[in-house]
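Subject: complex prediction, re-run

Hi both,

The earlier run crashed halfway through, so I resubmitted it with identical inputs.
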Amino acid sequence: MIQRRLYIYIVAAASLGMLLIGLVNLGTTALDQLFRATPIYTNPRDSYAGFGAVTLVGLPVWGIHWWIAQRLARRNLDERASALRRLYLYAVLAATGVATATFARGFLEHAAGFLLGTSNDGPSIARAFWGTVVLFALWLYHFRTAAVDRTIAGESGNSATLRRWYAYGLLVLGLAFLLFGARNLLQQVWILLVDSSQTIVPGSLVPSAMATMLTGLVVFGFHLQWTSRAPLAADDRSSTLRAVQGFVALAASVALALFGASQLSYYALARVLGIDHPGGVGGDILVAVAGPAATVVVFSLAWVWIRRQLTTDAGEVEATRQAGVRHLYTHLVALLALATMAIGAAGLLWTISDQVLSGTLGRPVGEWRDKISLFITLILVGAPMWLSHWRASPEADERYTLSRRLYLYASLLGSVLAALIAGAVFVYRLLALLLGTSDAAAGAPLVDMGKAASVIVVAAVIGLYHWRALRSDAAARPAPAPRMAVIERDVHFIITGASEDEVRRLLGGLPEGASYSIEAPK
Amino acid sequence: MRGFNRIDRSSGLALAAVAALTLAGIVAVVLARSSEVAADSATPRGIVATYVRAIQAGDADTAWSLLNQNGTAPAPANGSPTAEPHYILSQDEFRQQVRGNRQPTPPTVRIVEVSQSSDWASVQLDVTHASANPLTGVSAQQLSVYLVRQAGSWQITSDPSAWAFQ
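This time it finished cleanly. Structure:
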């Protein structure tokens, strides 16, 4: 049975791929000829022959195998409920969904460019439209087939997991398109508004970002609504995959918002210190800050919104899970903020030691104000974020959570690894100094040792602090309840209706030191 | 697909933000087109603007008319760098290059800096293409276009690589 299913669905998937490639390219070639556009393939006849053959082979093979698959599903409920059939359906949905989104984005980009007068490429609009229509039609057909299967045969276990992989994968992809598109659009709008007098041609950046954002909105919005309605919502509420995609999106948003804020503060601080081109950024500073400012605005809003969604999700399940989600969020932000602050502190000490030692040894010293601005900025962004999210001595319900232990061990691991690598560099350069290698006379090993020591100091401080927090958590753990008084004399039970194995299993849970003997009647 | 939930307040706000951003994008492009660098043939900025727009419109003949056929600029008085001597395209080759490299998504071209003396000028441009990866957004490069004044009119002398603006 399984071999037959494997054969049918593998052949159906391969032939469907052939059919799609053939149809999309046949239409594209025909449209190129219709619009007298420069063809993608040099000779249209070659294109018709090649893609015509792919279509003519793919269509009947897919048609026959899919017809067999549908007939078997109608006759047998197990066939309809099989995980292999769901794998085929959700894999086709994922592939056609992503391809539809890509073509739709291209269509929106070219159409918006045409309407805004930044592009006049009609054939590209028609090509992208054709691709979108073909792929969307097949996506819709498979989406409805999967819905019918769910209604008739239900969906649980592996089949439900496959559906979640598809749904939450597309959800994350749609969200990424939406957020990055919005960020890029905001950046381009900002640049055009503050610097329009220097613009020769606005180009297709605004239509491109707009298309990415709108495509993302449709993909994300559809899958969010689909997974938020009954019966999928109830089924998915406690799913790990749903929580994981939420936290992945949250972590990315927090990291990008912090990164944008760091860049913004860096540019501001560098300007205060008299750097004309912080980080090598040329031209108008108002144009240079467009990217970081757009990143901060879009990903901070996403941060707030995703956090609210996660809280809402958690609020609809039990209180323990709700608290767990809150703690996971807090410790995730604290970890990212700690990493930002640590990089800033280590970089600041590194730059200072480089300047001091190079100056003392008469070695050439590089530009320091730019680097100092960057590292101070990282500290200024990371420190308040860490202080507002990290609690050294929280209530008992937070103190022994898995997320807090993960945070503490991740911080400890990061510190130890950083100290280990920097320690190795320190010893290597110390040996170079003692053995008098070629660059020792110029003092290079001493400068490198100073830089390595900067990393060691910061890693040691962070590592020790978190090690003490772990110790403190262990010390504050309430003592286990006192053991009940041990029975000193023999106790005799009479058990009936159970096998000897069952009785032994039951008694297997006795504490260490206890013993028992079974005397079964002959 | 029936029976979708009503949109909650925060999702409604997100939708409103997307709509506002879309509108802002349209307004920004319209405003940018109305106040973009003028095609003034008396200034290096105007000449470069006309050249870039002609290239993007596929008007190879107009773009060609703005090029200095000697191919190299005379050394400027202040000793600023000048274009390297290079292979000079024929008008047909230039026309083919302009037509052959046209892309459906032309880049944004902005002036970053203009340096000018009485008979020499350089215009530094920021050319930003929409990236093939929609998540990274853009790929930017800075190019310099050099011009000389001959017989009272400005002409472009640096390598006319039309593909850079397409």
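Confidence is low (pLDDT under 50) at residues 72-83 of chain B.

- K.
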